[in-house]
Amino acid sequence: MSLSEFALIERYLQSLSTGAEGVALGIGDDCALLEIPAGQQLALSVDTLVEGVHFPATISPADLACRALNACVSDLAAMGAEPRWLTLALTLPEANEPWLAAFAAALGEGLKGFGMALVGGDTTRGALSLTLQVHGLVPAAQALRRDGARPGDGVYVTGTLGDAMAGLDQLQQRQAPNSALLGRFFRPCARVQAGLRLRGRASAAVDISDGLAADLGHVLGRSGVGATLWLDQLPLSEPMRDNYTAEQAQRFALGGGEDFELCFTLPPAGETELGDLGVSWTRIGTIDAEPGLRGRDAAGRIAVLPQHGYQHF
Ligand code: ADP
Ligand code: MG
User: Fold this and answer.
1) Which is nearest to 186 in space by CA: 204, 214, 165, 207?
2) What's domain 154-304's superfamily in CATH?
3) Ligand 1 within 6 A of 28 CB?
C-alpha cells in the first residue's frame, strides 16, 4: 500500500478510539485494555462481511460502514446488551484515501450514536472484507436469550419486515429503485433501545438477520416450543405495500434477511408495561407447546411454514 499500514491507522482510525466508557488503553498497543464493571457480563459477537456475498461491490464506503456496524451491534441489541467497544479487522485491496476517509467518517458517526469506541483491530491487504467484533455490557444473568420462550407467550417484532430484502430486489431488478426500500438495505438500524427496554420483560429475543421464519425458528428450537404466526398481522411498510403484491410482501416478510429488527416473546399480559421501545412493535403470533412453525391466514386456515433462511453452506 502506498500509505503505510501504520499511517493509515493513525490518520483514519485512531480518532475513533474515544467516546466510550471503560477504555483503559485503546488503539496503539498489542492489546486494548477494557474495564468491565463488577456485576456486569461482557457480551461479545463477531461478524464478517465479504464483498459480493454480504454487500455489492458498488456499495459506498459510508453505507458499508453503517451497514457493517449496525449488523454487528444488532446482536448486542438482541441480547439486551449496552454497546461499548468495537474491534475491526479490515482487508483492503488498496489504501484508497478518499474511500478510507468516507468509511472512517461514517464509522465514527455510527460509533458516536451508540456511545462506542474503536479500540483495536488488524489491517491487511486483499479482497475487500471486514470483520467486526462488538463488545457490550449486560447486568449478570439479565441478557435476553433464545431459550426462554414458553407456550402461551406472545410473539412480537419491532418495525416492519422484509424491507431490506425488497430493497435488494429493487437494486437488482428495478430501473428506478424505491429509495426508502434501498435505504433499509444499505442503512439498517440496530434496535439497541428496544433490546435494553426488553431486559427483564421479554422471555426470549433474537435479531432478524436470516429472515423471520429462520430466526424465530432458532428461538423455537432453543426453547423447545413451536409457534403460530398471524400472517395477516405481519407489519409491512408503506413502500412495501405500494411496490409488491400481498403475496410477495409476505414472502419477503417471512423469509427476507438483513432487516435487523428484533423478534421477541412476552409472557401473557407482558405488553401492558412494555412502554417505548424507540420503534413501533407488533404482536404477530403465539408460542405453542407443539413444535414447528405454523402460519394462520385471515380466513383462519393454518399451514406449516418453511423455516429455512439464507445459508452460506
Ligand atoms: P500487532 O502487530 O501487535 O497485532 P498491529 O501492528 O497490527 O499490532 O496494529 C497496531 C495497533 O493498531 C494495534 O493497537 C491494533 O489494535 C491497531 N489496529 C490495527 N488495525 C486496526 C484497524 N483496522 N482498526 C482499529 N485498530 C487497528
Ligand atoms: Mg503485537
Assistant:
1) 165
2) PurM-like C-terminal domain (3.90.650.10)
3) yes
